[in-house]
Amino acid sequence: MSVREFELYHGAVLAKILRSDKPVALRLVETKPGENWSTYTLNDAVSLLVTFSKGPRPISRGNGGISWSFVFSVNQLRQMNPDNSELPVWVAMVCGRKSPADGDMQVCLLDPEQLADVIDFTAAQQSLTVRNPKGRGQLRVFKGRKETFLVPQSRLEKWELPGS
Q1: What number of helices (H) and strands (E) belong to the chain?
Q2: Which pTM value belongs to this model?
């Protein structure tokens, strides 16, 4: 059986959760393959949607760096929508590369409140941009051309996973 591309990026997020510096007692990881290939239920406490972009672009202003664009499909927006989930929904955006050897990759973890601030869950399509400026410990999240908030690069590793 071959390894599919999304499995590599999703696996990176799950490995970061399980191999963090703090002990994690992950009791349940569940998916609904027929419905939600991108969402995982963790510890019966949270839903985690994982998405990835593997096409970074250079940032020409300031100190440079790179940025990734994430375009959310109707299905992903449905999975993120708090009205469709009994659990709080978090989103892990994997800022990837075509190959891990091509350079630095990051995971930008957004909490339910941040999602509610920037996403219209009923739209046909939504997009966000994540920028990683050189020499910074924070990722910058943009909706359109407006910076909406900063996310620490270490947020996923330091996440206090509910139910652990």
Answers
A1: 4, 10
A2: 0.89
- pLDDT at residue 35, as a whole number: 59
Is 49 strand, coil or helix? Answer: strand
Quick one: tokens of 45? 């406490």
Give the model confidence (pLDDT) of 33-79 as tens digits.
665 578 888 888 888 999 999 888 988 776 778 999 999 999 899 98
Full residue range of the structural domain in which residue 118 is found: 5-158
Cβ-contact 159, 45 below 8 angstroms: no
Which CATH number covers residue 102? 3.40.1350
Contacts with 11 (C-beta within 8 Å, 6 or more apart), sequence order: none
Q: Are 46 and 24 in contact (CB under 8 A)?
A: no
Which residues are CB-neighbours of 118 under 8 A, at least 6 positions away?
Answer: 128, 141, 143, 148
Structure letter (DSSP) for residue 158: H
